[in-house]
Fold each of these.
Amino acid sequence: MNKTKKRSDCPVSCSLDIWGDRWSLLIIRDLMFAKECTYGDFLKAPERIATNILASRLQALEENKIIEKLEHPESKAKVLYRLTKKGIDLLPIMIEINLWAEKYFSIPEDRKAMLKQVKKDKAGFIKAATKELQSFR
Amino acid sequence: MNKTKKRSDCPVSCSLDIWGDRWSLLIIRDLMFAKECTYGDFLKAPERIATNILASRLQALEENKIIEKLEHPESKAKVLYRLTKKGIDLLPIMIEINLWAEKYFSIPEDRKAMLKQVKKDKAGFIKAATKELQSFR
DNA sequence: AATTTTACTTGCAATTTGCAAGTACAAATA
DNA sequence: TATTTGTACTTGCAAATTGCAAGTAAAATT
């Protein structure tokens, strides 16, 4: 989001200072599902983020070591983004958000199917998904 | 946050539409710790929320059934806010945020002590804390 | 060589934030 | 009873952020 404005020492506040806006977690969501995304991939998300906002969020997330850039293996015109370990560690938060939302909204079927797996063995799911994300690093 | 602007059917997006800003989760945090807060209590938080922002967030959270108002037992001049069940159910998200932050920031000692309890038995902690919050309803 | 793709940047209007001050009602105090 | 204080907001306004549309530059394709 913004650079180095720490509002307090509260862990919640510190976290929100980094990804507590309407867009950052959606970028992180996309990376958790797709593992690697280009700039254009993010723009395809249904929420329709504006290009300037996307650029500013990607920069802030990179500065905060949540994501990192890497070369696209097939093209110099493309940039690949992926999660760092710090970003991958947001997975439990992302899962709990999905579980909460499932309880209070109607959500897409494919997401429900995923959450069914989660509820069977949450720790196991997180471990496996983390490992999968790590394998791209 | 804002009224009824649903950006997509994604559960993450729907959630952020409600509490995905820099302040809402801090209000919810205060209510999770204190159980019941007055307007003035929220203003005492170290992040120093502006009075107009606080009023607008409280209204939005109430409209979205995350919090509710009740009469103060001792004074008609005061208003008490507390979490609804929907708000209490955000507890697992709040805990995961704290756990993530502990890993990447230095956080206050008392919060560390709480997280020590969490790590001993996460499900048990959430159950007990939820029950405790429910007891105020 | 010309066109298209990709990742941005820029300009600008609209919205939101943040600060300071003000208001209205209740409660405490003189 | 009159006055002051406390509590929960609202209002006004400047500054920052957002969102839309258009533009740019380098790389890839035709």
Note: Chain B touches chain A at residues 1, 7-17, 20-22, 25-26, 29, 45-48, 86, 89-90, 92-94, 96-108, 111 (CB under 8 Å).
Amino acid sequence: MAVRLTRSDWTAAALVALAEGGVGAVAIEPLAARLGATKGSAYWHFANREALLRATLERWEQESTESVIRQVEAQPEGHARLRALFESVLDHPTAHLAELALLSAPAEPVVTEIVNRVTERRIGYLAGLYGQIGFGRPEARRRAVLAYAAYLGNAQLRRAAPKSLPTARRPYVEDVVHALTRPPR
Amino acid sequence: MAVRLTRSDWTAAALVALAEGGVGAVAIEPLAARLGATKGSAYWHFANREALLRATLERWEQESTESVIRQVEAQPEGHARLRALFESVLDHPTAHLAELALLSAPAEPVVTEIVNRVTERRIGYLAGLYGQIGFGRPEARRRAVLAYAAYLGNAQLRRAAPKSLPTARRPYVEDVVHALTRPPR
DNA sequence: CGCCTTCCATACGCCACCGTATGTTCCATC
DNA sequence: GATGGAACATACGGTGGCGTATGGAAGGCG
């Protein structure tokens, strides 16, 4: 019995809890129960709850964004990358639960700090893609913000009110790609 | 002293708390403290916490959506209404805090029930507006979903990562209107 | 084998919020 | 001006999570 746990075991379990129950579910005692351990283990690896939360968010920061970007970079430059990104991101209904939990968390300073970094990284990358298809700098930036907002809202809807989303995914994706990649003015 | 409180006083205070601290902040004892009363009052007007939450959400349902729609209906049919809606909704940084709290609330059944109703109402109305400017039924519906998602995401960003939003609001609004009202294909 | 560090369990006090039970005040009404 | 109900206050027990203190097992290492 009593398999020893690592910091990584804790943050992994915390990520699951985060996706399922939000920031509030990243709580030491319930996690300990799920891991078949007690608080003693948690307070050995982490100073307190906030330290566990911070470690969990930093792990999420690493894993969430870069994997998607790597995947997109496999495509040739230009429209193909934007399309690949939209498709990848409109799919995977359960893949984006963690960020939803973060974005609406009652202003914990640890959360807002990391959310800001991740948001800027993603929008910046998106703006780069728009630059590749001929958008000027400010236009690319504005369109990137719009596209990222659409992504977030879409994930929100998929979670909170999936009934209102289109059932036929194919034409929806096409429309989104079409509307969001058309050049301005 | 000791001004008597009504159900409406409680739901009003709960709405404020909801916007500020999320669903979790709709808690009886803190609200009682803010109202200068005690739990006795709350448990007189409401059976329990969930009843207070439900009453609060139903009030929000009434007040949030219809006021915006009335405002938009003052415009002439067609593009003017969509533009008015987008402008109204991209403004008012603090006006949409309650829904953000709701959309990412850890699956309380009361919340999801009402969020579903509100979402369907709004997307349905939006689809109607797109119909007025010549979109076919399915196209209007898909574009409405996209536009509503963009709205939600935008509100999210404004709250969680305002630094990443465009500083110059005017061209941003123009780009959004342009991208989201162009006819498909 | 014995020892020391690492990792964890147990047990405790604390706080915030829930819900209930019962006492208390205000006001209308006869 | 006594009485009954409406609208509270007060006091209590219960729950769930935080953080601390201290004791104990388990493995490397001499």
Note: Chain B touches chain A through 50 residues (CB under 8 Å).
Amino acid sequence: MSDDRRLDVLRAIVEDYVATQEPVGSRSLLERHQLGVSPATIRGDMAILEDEGYIIAPHTSAGRIPTDKGYRMFVDRLAKVKPLSGAERRAIETFLGGAVDVEDVVQRSVKVLAQLTRQVAIVQYPSLTRSSVRHIEVVPLESARVLLVVITSSGRVEQRIVELTETPDEKLVLDLRSRIVGATVGERLPEASLKLADMIETFAPEHRPVVTSIVTTLTQTFSNERSDERIAIGGTANLARFGADFDRSIKPVLEALEEQVVLLKLLGEATTGMSVSIGRETGYEGLATTSVVATPYGSDEQALATLGTVGPTRIDYPSTMASVAAVSRYVGGILTERWTPDP
Amino acid sequence: MSDDRRLDVLRAIVEDYVATQEPVGSRSLLERHQLGVSPATIRGDMAILEDEGYIIAPHTSAGRIPTDKGYRMFVDRLAKVKPLSGAERRAIETFLGGAVDVEDVVQRSVKVLAQLTRQVAIVQYPSLTRSSVRHIEVVPLESARVLLVVITSSGRVEQRIVELTETPDEKLVLDLRSRIVGATVGERLPEASLKLADMIETFAPEHRPVVTSIVTTLTQTFSNERSDERIAIGGTANLARFGADFDRSIKPVLEALEEQVVLLKLLGEATTGMSVSIGRETGYEGLATTSVVATPYGSDEQALATLGTVGPTRIDYPSTMASVAAVSRYVGGILTERWTPDP
DNA sequence: GACTGGCACCTGAGAACGACGAGTGCCGAA
DNA sequence: TTCGGCACTCGTCGTTCTCAGGTGCCAGTC
């Protein structure tokens, strides 16, 4: 008995099950794959694969379906790369190319990814903390209010209105503005916070309250966790493909999708590269029958955030991974090229 | 036969059906309502109500369920106002009160409305075109780029980056900025656009290209339809209550929810006040078994946008309408009080 | 020793069926 | 007009039966 053939059988089972959504038996397997042996031999291989936990029979007299472990093996060792078609590439490129701002890029990414994979797509907004300061503006408003605008290297704009105890002197504001800009532009957000903290002491004591107030707000904005938590979701109608049993297989997924914390953790696992979490590997009971494919996007040096898909475990992993990778690449390209200072 | 009693019967049928989700027969109706007559009499009334199209029997020997027309009658003439409990009011108030910016207000509104009604909640972001200019900032960036920031009376901040053909003179930018601010602050967005157009000619011809470029971008931002289209959705897990048949009753709803155009049209019908669309009244086949309850929010004088719920036709209309109205009131209050210039 | 064909066995899906019960429509009487 | 009574209708539920697809095992073959 050859180990190789047993793995071929596993691959064939995964492929067939993904295609048909039905347990695959030894006979029907041979109808779709030329393995050069008889059904009985396949049955032997299947029995061993079942012993090893790669596949399982839903009941005595049905075919086999892959287990989480089986999919894992398939993804890690058996899947062949399935490149996107030229049409798909062009579709991504032209659709994302039409975006007018960061918000738009994210919305379009979600849409295109959901359509490509026919799954639920999730895209995290570009992280604030992982980007650097492009510009900061300090604008006095009416009363004793000041508007702060922070523009980051990823093109995001955050604004805050600060209520001061007194209307600040115009010269002070101008001075403060230029010093803030000088200290922070080009810095990563955490570093910028440090620089700002140091800066406070360089001001005359009578100006400290105003300066402190403004700097504090900026620092909060830099480390604003809520901003990092924003996520766009699309393609929820594709949940239809998850299964017919709403309460058991779809409702928990919808609940998980509404729970940003869960999504962020799932996406967070993909900081270093393409990540595939299969079934219970996701760590959430509600997602026990779903897989999450995620990958970071951004420039080569710096990831901005993460995007991916949520689908039933029985998905076409090679295609899904190819789509996620492609969208990630284009989004990263657009965000870094388009909204980056020209040379 | 009294007309009054027949309407009482219709009301009882709607209330019972909403409560039990099951067709209601003449006998079980009397178990829950004291109508002072016998089942046979009720049957007579039911027969007439069925002739008139207010109720229908799913099959010969089942009870009756209300038709869209029956719900319509119920909402228009039979429903008694069902005020929110004090606890519910306080929950809305405290939860929405914790919001830190407009984005946050909208997110929290969706959440609280979905929880209160146990339906899908949709909240349109405050409209740009319906609000006025609070402040505009013009910030030169590196190269020949300029950042424009627009703050509206509803607290929204829009930003655009303009690519100019040449780096503008610093004095010109300052002049332009103060003139833009002078011309637009306090104006409604459409009027602000007009004022800006007039302003172009007051600049020296050599400055026209820069000015025109910037003003054009601002005008586009003012009339940006895409901004008006943003909608937050929540409580999709409540779709579970819509019915067990996913493909027929839930998938089309999910699809409609992803189609912003549909949602906007539904919300748009509520410009003048509380609007209830029942079943096919929504005008979308996919929403044939759902009802949309929507109402505008904003100040007394000026609606900012619309919010509401999407649920199966068999919902508790009085409670739903009360919840939608309450959330609308609080959201409107917060947005107009909190982010409006102090006196 | 690995593979194959044959065979007995298992089991879920689906059709057929009957009993049951909730509900109706109608009629004659109060 | 209302009411009680009665015959009738149909969908639901549980039971039974058949069927098809699938397995495991074993003896035989290359």
Note: Strands of chain A lie at 55-56, 65-66, 120-124, 133-140, 145-152, 157-163, 231-234, 275-278, 290-298, 303-312.
